[in-house]
Design goal:
Elements (H helix, E strand, L loop, with lengths): L19 H5 L1 H10 L5 E6 L8 E7 L6 E7 L5 E5 L14 E2 L3 E2 L6 E2 L5 E3 L18 E2 L1 E4 L2 E5 L6 H12 L8 E12 L3 H8 L5 H4 L1 H6 L6 E5 L2 E7 L20 E8 L3 E6 L2 E11 L2 E10 L13 H18 L16 H13 L2
Antiparallel strand pairs: 1-11, 2-3, 2-5, 3-4, 4-9, 6-7, 7-8, 10-11, 12-18, 13-14, 14-15, 15-16, 16-17, 17-18
Helix pairs in contact: 4-7
Length: 362
Protein backbone atom coordinates (compact mmCIF):
# COMPACT_ATOMS: atom_id res chain seq x y z
CA UNK A 1 0.00 0.00 0.00
CA UNK A 2 1.44 3.39 -1.00
CA UNK A 3 1.72 6.26 1.45
CA UNK A 4 -0.83 9.05 0.87
CA UNK A 5 0.48 12.33 -0.54
CA UNK A 6 -0.19 15.56 1.33
CA UNK A 7 -0.24 19.18 0.24
CA UNK A 8 -1.11 22.46 1.95
CA UNK A 9 -2.21 25.55 0.04
CA UNK A 10 0.40 28.28 0.71
CA UNK A 11 -2.44 30.80 0.96
CA UNK A 12 -3.70 30.37 4.52
CA UNK A 13 -6.99 32.08 3.65
CA UNK A 14 -7.75 29.17 1.31
CA UNK A 15 -5.80 26.33 2.92
CA UNK A 16 -7.17 23.23 4.61
CA UNK A 17 -5.40 21.47 7.47
CA UNK A 18 -3.73 18.09 7.12
CA UNK A 19 -6.47 15.49 6.83
CA UNK A 20 -7.47 13.14 9.63
CA UNK A 21 -5.83 10.32 7.71
CA UNK A 22 -2.42 11.94 8.30
CA UNK A 23 -2.73 11.30 12.02
CA UNK A 24 -4.24 7.82 11.67
CA UNK A 25 -2.14 6.27 8.92
CA UNK A 26 0.64 3.95 10.16
CA UNK A 27 2.61 4.16 6.89
CA UNK A 28 2.67 7.96 7.18
CA UNK A 29 3.87 7.71 10.78
CA UNK A 30 6.68 5.41 9.65
CA UNK A 31 7.59 7.67 6.73
CA UNK A 32 7.81 10.68 9.07
CA UNK A 33 10.61 8.86 10.86
CA UNK A 34 12.73 8.83 7.69
CA UNK A 35 11.62 12.05 6.00
CA UNK A 36 11.23 14.32 9.03
CA UNK A 37 13.10 13.11 12.11
CA UNK A 38 16.12 11.58 10.39
CA UNK A 39 16.39 14.86 8.46
CA UNK A 40 16.36 17.09 11.53
CA UNK A 41 18.29 18.69 14.35
CA UNK A 42 17.50 17.13 17.70
CA UNK A 43 18.00 17.91 21.38
CA UNK A 44 20.86 15.89 22.88
CA UNK A 45 21.03 17.11 26.45
CA UNK A 46 22.94 19.33 28.83
CA UNK A 47 26.69 19.96 28.75
CA UNK A 48 26.82 18.69 32.34
CA UNK A 49 26.43 15.16 30.94
CA UNK A 50 30.12 15.38 30.01
CA UNK A 51 31.25 17.96 32.53
CA UNK A 52 34.92 16.95 32.64
CA UNK A 53 37.47 15.92 30.00
CA UNK A 54 37.56 12.18 29.22
CA UNK A 55 33.91 11.76 30.21
CA UNK A 56 31.51 9.77 28.00
CA UNK A 57 27.72 9.55 28.06
CA UNK A 58 25.89 6.98 25.88
CA UNK A 59 22.21 7.58 25.07
CA UNK A 60 19.47 6.58 22.66
CA UNK A 61 18.16 9.36 20.44
CA UNK A 62 14.34 9.49 20.63
CA UNK A 63 14.17 6.08 22.28
CA UNK A 64 11.01 4.24 21.25
CA UNK A 65 10.96 5.84 17.79
CA UNK A 66 14.36 6.42 16.17
CA UNK A 67 16.20 4.32 18.77
CA UNK A 68 19.50 5.65 17.40
CA UNK A 69 22.48 4.73 19.68
CA UNK A 70 24.71 7.77 20.21
CA UNK A 71 27.41 8.85 22.65
CA UNK A 72 28.62 12.21 23.92
CA UNK A 73 32.31 12.55 24.70
CA UNK A 74 34.57 15.33 25.92
CA UNK A 75 38.17 14.93 24.83
CA UNK A 76 41.24 16.03 26.78
CA UNK A 77 41.16 19.41 25.04
CA UNK A 78 37.65 19.99 26.40
CA UNK A 79 35.92 19.63 23.02
CA UNK A 80 32.51 17.90 23.07
CA UNK A 81 31.82 15.33 20.34
CA UNK A 82 28.56 13.63 19.40
CA UNK A 83 29.22 10.21 17.88
CA UNK A 84 27.53 7.04 16.78
CA UNK A 85 27.77 4.50 19.60
CA UNK A 86 27.89 1.58 17.16
CA UNK A 87 31.22 -0.20 16.60
CA UNK A 88 32.24 -0.19 12.94
CA UNK A 89 33.37 -3.85 13.18
CA UNK A 90 30.28 -5.87 14.05
CA UNK A 91 27.77 -3.30 15.31
CA UNK A 92 28.05 -3.74 19.07
CA UNK A 93 27.50 -0.75 21.35
CA UNK A 94 30.87 0.81 22.14
CA UNK A 95 30.08 2.75 25.32
CA UNK A 96 27.84 0.79 27.65
CA UNK A 97 27.65 3.16 30.64
CA UNK A 98 28.50 6.77 31.46
CA UNK A 99 31.98 7.18 32.85
CA UNK A 100 35.52 8.47 32.47
CA UNK A 101 37.94 6.88 30.01
CA UNK A 102 40.84 7.89 27.77
CA UNK A 103 39.63 5.83 24.80
CA UNK A 104 36.45 4.23 23.53
CA UNK A 105 36.89 0.47 23.29
CA UNK A 106 34.35 -2.07 22.11
CA UNK A 107 34.20 -4.89 24.67
CA UNK A 108 33.23 -7.43 21.98
CA UNK A 109 36.51 -7.66 20.01
CA UNK A 110 38.66 -4.83 21.36
CA UNK A 111 38.39 -2.23 18.60
CA UNK A 112 39.57 1.15 19.94
CA UNK A 113 38.56 4.68 19.03
CA UNK A 114 39.68 8.12 20.16
CA UNK A 115 37.21 10.31 22.03
CA UNK A 116 36.69 12.17 18.75
CA UNK A 117 35.51 8.90 17.13
CA UNK A 118 38.64 8.25 15.08
CA UNK A 119 39.64 4.60 14.62
CA UNK A 120 42.87 3.74 16.45
CA UNK A 121 43.47 -0.01 16.58
CA UNK A 122 41.97 -3.48 16.11
CA UNK A 123 43.38 -6.88 17.16
CA UNK A 124 43.86 -9.68 14.61
CA UNK A 125 43.50 -7.50 11.51
CA UNK A 126 47.10 -7.52 10.19
CA UNK A 127 46.12 -9.64 7.19
CA UNK A 128 43.12 -7.47 6.24
CA UNK A 129 43.69 -5.63 2.94
CA UNK A 130 42.79 -1.97 2.43
CA UNK A 131 42.44 -1.53 6.17
CA UNK A 132 41.76 0.71 7.96
CA UNK A 133 39.45 2.78 5.77
CA UNK A 134 37.82 6.12 6.62
CA UNK A 135 34.58 4.28 7.40
CA UNK A 136 36.26 2.57 10.35
CA UNK A 137 35.80 5.82 12.30
CA UNK A 138 32.65 6.22 14.35
CA UNK A 139 30.09 8.37 12.56
CA UNK A 140 30.35 11.98 13.72
CA UNK A 141 27.20 14.05 14.07
CA UNK A 142 27.45 17.80 13.61
CA UNK A 143 26.64 19.38 16.95
CA UNK A 144 25.87 22.88 18.23
CA UNK A 145 25.73 24.30 21.73
CA UNK A 146 23.36 27.04 22.90
CA UNK A 147 24.09 28.05 26.45
CA UNK A 148 24.23 24.73 28.34
CA UNK A 149 22.12 22.92 25.71
CA UNK A 150 23.51 20.52 23.11
CA UNK A 151 21.97 19.64 19.73
CA UNK A 152 22.92 17.14 17.03
CA UNK A 153 22.19 17.04 13.32
CA UNK A 154 20.78 13.73 12.10
CA UNK A 155 20.72 14.81 8.45
CA UNK A 156 19.23 18.29 8.10
CA UNK A 157 20.56 20.82 5.59
CA UNK A 158 19.51 23.64 7.93
CA UNK A 159 22.23 25.65 9.68
CA UNK A 160 21.14 25.47 13.31
CA UNK A 161 23.54 28.26 14.24
CA UNK A 162 21.46 30.61 12.09
CA UNK A 163 18.33 29.58 14.00
CA UNK A 164 20.08 30.26 17.31
CA UNK A 165 21.25 33.65 16.02
CA UNK A 166 17.69 34.57 15.08
CA UNK A 167 16.26 33.36 18.40
CA UNK A 168 18.93 35.40 20.18
CA UNK A 169 17.48 38.52 18.57
CA UNK A 170 14.61 37.98 21.02
CA UNK A 171 16.31 36.44 24.06
CA UNK A 172 20.02 37.11 23.56
CA UNK A 173 19.94 39.63 26.42
CA UNK A 174 19.45 36.72 28.84
CA UNK A 175 22.64 35.14 30.30
CA UNK A 176 21.84 31.64 29.08
CA UNK A 177 25.15 30.30 30.38
CA UNK A 178 23.91 31.10 33.89
CA UNK A 179 20.70 29.08 33.48
CA UNK A 180 20.86 25.96 35.68
CA UNK A 181 19.03 22.74 34.91
CA UNK A 182 16.55 21.73 37.63
CA UNK A 183 15.71 18.05 37.87
CA UNK A 184 13.10 18.88 40.53
CA UNK A 185 11.20 21.20 38.18
CA UNK A 186 11.49 18.87 35.18
CA UNK A 187 8.97 16.19 34.30
CA UNK A 188 7.88 13.72 31.60
CA UNK A 189 4.29 13.31 30.42
CA UNK A 190 2.65 10.55 28.38
CA UNK A 191 -0.01 11.91 26.04
CA UNK A 192 -2.42 9.51 24.37
CA UNK A 193 -2.38 11.30 21.04
CA UNK A 194 -0.35 11.70 17.85
CA UNK A 195 2.81 13.79 18.35
CA UNK A 196 1.87 16.29 15.62
CA UNK A 197 -1.41 17.08 17.39
CA UNK A 198 0.57 18.16 20.42
CA UNK A 199 2.59 20.51 18.19
CA UNK A 200 -0.59 21.76 16.49
CA UNK A 201 -1.95 22.78 19.88
CA UNK A 202 1.29 24.44 20.95
CA UNK A 203 1.53 26.48 17.77
CA UNK A 204 -1.52 28.66 18.36
CA UNK A 205 -2.69 30.86 21.18
CA UNK A 206 -6.21 30.65 19.79
CA UNK A 207 -7.25 28.15 22.46
CA UNK A 208 -5.87 30.05 25.47
CA UNK A 209 -9.10 31.88 26.47
CA UNK A 210 -11.08 28.67 26.15
CA UNK A 211 -8.70 26.15 27.75
CA UNK A 212 -6.31 27.99 30.09
CA UNK A 213 -8.11 30.33 32.49
CA UNK A 214 -5.03 31.02 34.63
CA UNK A 215 -2.74 31.61 31.66
CA UNK A 216 -5.36 33.83 30.05
CA UNK A 217 -5.30 36.07 33.13
CA UNK A 218 -1.51 36.42 32.84
CA UNK A 219 -1.52 37.23 29.11
CA UNK A 220 -3.21 39.88 27.01
CA UNK A 221 -4.89 37.72 24.38
CA UNK A 222 -5.69 40.68 22.13
CA UNK A 223 -1.98 41.46 21.55
CA UNK A 224 -0.74 37.85 21.40
CA UNK A 225 1.19 37.35 18.18
CA UNK A 226 3.00 34.69 16.14
CA UNK A 227 6.11 35.62 14.15
CA UNK A 228 7.22 33.20 11.44
CA UNK A 229 10.86 32.53 10.60
CA UNK A 230 12.55 30.02 8.33
CA UNK A 231 12.35 26.62 10.05
CA UNK A 232 10.93 28.03 13.30
CA UNK A 233 8.50 30.53 14.76
CA UNK A 234 8.01 32.47 17.97
CA UNK A 235 4.83 33.32 19.81
CA UNK A 236 5.04 36.47 21.91
CA UNK A 237 2.82 36.74 24.97
CA UNK A 238 2.30 40.24 26.36
CA UNK A 239 0.97 41.13 29.79
CA UNK A 240 -1.51 43.85 30.66
CA UNK A 241 0.45 44.60 33.84
CA UNK A 242 4.09 45.51 34.35
CA UNK A 243 4.77 42.70 36.83
CA UNK A 244 6.24 39.34 35.84
CA UNK A 245 7.57 40.57 32.51
CA UNK A 246 11.07 40.76 31.04
CA UNK A 247 13.34 43.72 31.71
CA UNK A 248 14.17 44.34 28.08
CA UNK A 249 17.31 46.30 27.25
CA UNK A 250 17.35 49.53 25.28
CA UNK A 251 17.41 48.80 21.56
CA UNK A 252 15.55 45.50 21.89
CA UNK A 253 12.85 44.98 19.26
CA UNK A 254 10.21 44.89 22.01
CA UNK A 255 11.73 47.55 24.26
CA UNK A 256 9.01 49.38 26.14
CA UNK A 257 6.55 46.51 25.77
CA UNK A 258 5.42 44.19 28.57
CA UNK A 259 6.56 40.79 27.29
CA UNK A 260 5.62 37.95 29.64
CA UNK A 261 6.86 35.03 27.53
CA UNK A 262 8.63 34.04 24.33
CA UNK A 263 7.50 30.66 22.98
CA UNK A 264 9.85 29.28 20.32
CA UNK A 265 9.06 26.22 18.21
CA UNK A 266 11.80 24.65 16.05
CA UNK A 267 10.76 22.15 13.40
CA UNK A 268 9.79 19.45 13.95
CA UNK A 269 9.54 18.81 17.71
CA UNK A 270 11.48 21.22 19.93
CA UNK A 271 10.00 24.06 22.01
CA UNK A 272 11.82 26.69 24.06
CA UNK A 273 9.63 28.69 26.42
CA UNK A 274 11.37 31.69 27.97
CA UNK A 275 9.90 33.33 31.07
CA UNK A 276 11.34 35.88 33.51
CA UNK A 277 12.26 32.97 35.80
CA UNK A 278 14.13 31.02 33.11
CA UNK A 279 13.45 28.45 30.41
CA UNK A 280 11.20 25.44 29.93
CA UNK A 281 12.40 23.20 27.10
CA UNK A 282 9.74 20.85 25.70
CA UNK A 283 10.91 17.86 23.64
CA UNK A 284 8.15 15.97 21.82
CA UNK A 285 9.00 12.28 21.33
CA UNK A 286 6.72 10.13 19.11
CA UNK A 287 6.09 6.63 20.44
CA UNK A 288 3.25 5.46 18.21
CA UNK A 289 0.47 7.09 16.18
CA UNK A 290 -1.54 7.01 19.40
CA UNK A 291 1.00 7.98 22.07
CA UNK A 292 3.60 10.68 22.63
CA UNK A 293 6.14 11.37 25.37
CA UNK A 294 6.62 15.03 26.25
CA UNK A 295 9.63 16.05 28.33
CA UNK A 296 9.52 19.34 30.24
CA UNK A 297 13.11 20.35 31.06
CA UNK A 298 13.44 23.37 33.34
CA UNK A 299 16.37 25.79 33.49
CA UNK A 300 16.21 28.26 36.38
CA UNK A 301 17.61 31.77 36.16
CA UNK A 302 15.64 33.75 38.77
CA UNK A 303 14.02 31.41 41.28
CA UNK A 304 12.14 34.28 42.96
CA UNK A 305 9.95 34.56 39.83
CA UNK A 306 9.41 30.82 39.39
CA UNK A 307 5.71 30.64 40.29
CA UNK A 308 4.58 33.93 38.82
CA UNK A 309 3.13 35.22 35.57
CA UNK A 310 2.83 33.26 32.32
CA UNK A 311 5.45 30.76 33.49
CA UNK A 312 3.50 29.69 36.57
CA UNK A 313 1.36 26.56 36.93
CA UNK A 314 3.04 24.81 34.00
CA UNK A 315 1.85 21.40 35.17
CA UNK A 316 -1.77 22.60 35.23
CA UNK A 317 -1.43 24.15 31.76
CA UNK A 318 0.10 20.90 30.49
CA UNK A 319 -2.78 18.81 31.87
CA UNK A 320 -5.27 21.14 30.22
CA UNK A 321 -3.42 20.83 26.91
CA UNK A 322 -3.33 17.03 27.23
CA UNK A 323 -7.09 16.93 27.74
CA UNK A 324 -7.90 18.84 24.56
CA UNK A 325 -5.20 17.16 22.45
CA UNK A 326 -6.41 13.71 23.46
CA UNK A 327 -9.94 14.84 22.64
CA UNK A 328 -8.87 15.89 19.15
CA UNK A 329 -7.05 12.58 18.69
CA UNK A 330 -10.28 10.71 19.47
CA UNK A 331 -12.28 13.01 17.22
CA UNK A 332 -9.99 12.38 14.26
CA UNK A 333 -11.00 8.72 14.32
CA UNK A 334 -14.39 9.80 12.96
CA UNK A 335 -15.07 8.98 9.33
CA UNK A 336 -17.14 12.17 9.10
CA UNK A 337 -14.25 14.62 9.70
CA UNK A 338 -11.97 14.97 6.65
CA UNK A 339 -10.03 18.16 7.52
CA UNK A 340 -10.53 21.70 8.79
CA UNK A 341 -9.62 25.29 7.95
CA UNK A 342 -7.05 27.66 9.47
CA UNK A 343 -7.79 30.93 11.21
CA UNK A 344 -5.71 33.38 9.11
CA UNK A 345 -5.24 35.53 12.21
CA UNK A 346 -4.57 32.96 14.91
CA UNK A 347 -3.23 29.80 13.26
CA UNK A 348 -0.32 30.93 11.10
CA UNK A 349 2.06 28.75 13.13
CA UNK A 350 -0.04 25.65 12.56
CA UNK A 351 -0.23 26.45 8.85
CA UNK A 352 3.57 26.74 8.74
CA UNK A 353 3.96 23.39 10.52
CA UNK A 354 1.52 21.57 8.23
CA UNK A 355 3.18 23.11 5.17
CA UNK A 356 6.61 21.95 6.32
CA UNK A 357 5.36 18.42 7.05
CA UNK A 358 3.73 18.15 3.63
CA UNK A 359 6.94 19.38 1.96
CA UNK A 360 9.11 16.97 3.98
CA UNK A 361 6.92 14.05 2.96
CA UNK A 362 7.31 15.03 -0.67
Amino acid sequence: MSTPRYSINPDITKAETLPASFYNDQSTFDLIKEKVFYQSWQWVGDEQLVKLPKQTHPFIMLDGYLTEPMVLTKDEAGIIHCLSNVCTHRGNLVAQNPGSQRKLMCMYHGRKFGLDGSFESMPEFKEAKDFPRACEDLHRFDSVQWGPMLFANLGSEVDFKNIIDEMNQYVGFLPLDEFVYSDVQSKDYLVNAHWALYCDNYLEGFHIPFVHSDLNEALDYGTYETILHNHFNVQVGYSEGAEDTFELPEGHMHAGKRVAAYYFWVYPNMMFNFYPWGLSVNIIRPLSPNQTKVSFLSYIYDESKLHKGAGALLDKVEREDEFVVEGVHKGLKSRYYPSGRFSPKRETGVHQFHSMLAKSLG
